[in-house]
């Protein structure tokens, strides 16, 4: 975020952004109690603002309200991961189909650029450079969002982004880099986009997402 944007950001918006990011990155792990006094000190905002922020996060299914007991970071479950994977397939597949038809040459350039950055991180991970794992996660998200960015529907993009964020919380915990398999799937998605072949892209995406889910569940990290 730029200095100008940070200066214009309200206290409530900043608290929401920071708290949400810490949940998605598992800095605040699943099952952690969210005590208002501790959050007030950590994030520098009042209890009233925190209640509003936590209410928004409850609506996004990142936090659970426990009645009189307060709030808790939503726990992981295999069932939710499978549900999120199904939603990603539905939303991302539809958005790719719309975007592949509408995308122009500038969109193609963004797809190629996003894939290039992702591939560079994947090469470094294959070489054993674990220090780029966070960058890989960031570029992975950028690549998938770029693939659907020409769909022409703000509602679809916003819904996809929310589902993707919840899915990525699992990725940050358990869906690690799957090596050359993931690299091939990402290249295939790039090529499908450039060929404007949504049917093939859907098939690759299904293999890509469901393979990641099974990898995470088999590892037992949830």
Describe this entry's structure for a reader.
The chain is mainly alpha-helical. Strand 2 (63-65) and strand 3 form a beta hairpin. The protein is built from ten helices and three strands; from the N terminus they run ααβααββαααααα. It is 73% helix and 4% strand. A three-stranded antiparallel β-sheet has the order 1-3-2. The chain is globular.
- Mean pLDDT comes to 91
Stretches where pLDDT is under 50 for at least 5 consecutive residues are 3-8
Question: How far do the termini sit from each other?
Answer: 32 Å
The radius of gyration over CA amounts to 19 Å
Output the strand order for the largest sheet: 1-3-2
**How much helix is in the residues?**
over 70%
| CATH architecture classification of the largest domain | Up-down Bundle
* CATH homology superfamily of the largest domain: GntR ligand-binding domain-like
Provide a count of the helices.
Answer: 10
Q: Give the tally of β-strands.
A: 3
Global outline: globular
Largest sheet: 3 strands, antiparallel
- Going by helix content, strand content and strand pairing, the class is mainly alpha
What is the fold named in CATH at topology level of the largest domain? Four Helix Bundle (Hemerythrin (Met), subunit A)
CATH class of the largest domain: Mainly Alpha
Strand percentage, roughly?
A: under 5%
Order of H and E elements? HHEHHEEHHHHHH
How many domain modules?
2
